[in-house]
Amino acid sequence: MNSRLALSITAIFLGFGLAACSSVALDDAGADSSGAHGSAMDPFNPNSVLSSDRSVYFEFNKYNVDEQYRPTVENHANYLRSHPQQNIVIEGNTDAVGGSEYNLALGHRRAEAVRRVMTLMGTNDQQIETISFGKEKPRALGYSEQDHAENRRADIVYERR
Questions:
Q1: pTM for the complete prediction?
Q2: Which of 85, 71, 155 is CA-nearest to residue 115?
Q3: How far is Cα 23 from Cα 130, in angstroms, rounded to an integer?
Q4: Do residues 153 and 55 touch, judged by C-beta distance below 8 A?
Q5: Is residue 22 one of the residues assigned to a domain?
Q6: Is residue 33 assigned to a domain?
Q7: Cα angle, residue 112 at apex, residues 47 and 130 outer, rounded to 5°
Q8: pLDDT tens column, 125-153
Q9: Is 7 part of any domain?
């Protein structure tokens, strides 16, 4: 019996020793919900889906979130739900067609449309701020239809924690 007891005690201490050597902090704010660093669902990892897919595009003079961008919005909504301390800013943008006031209002409606879809997906509204840049923050500087289409968007920007 003594050898079994000694073996059990040794196994217990070996287990404690391995647990103490763990390199993953339990309260690591940089870890995603699975405890892994640099995952495909980490907005601060440049190789993640959340980093590479942050824009929702709109048709000319429209502000409804098209079905093809629902997965993008859903990915971000899921991340925000599982990270309640994380906040974002949704930046509404327009092309250069039209007046400044009109485009500021349209950019605002675009940002709010993305916010609304996220909150319908369960994201806490307090995690989301919206802003409109109208036509003042173009991604494409040309005047072709392709350039205009690139500028009709809402960008999801994560705040550093």
A1: 0.76
A2: 155
A3: 38
A4: yes
A5: no
A6: no
A7: 65
A8: 999 999 999 999 999 999 999 999 999 99
A9: no
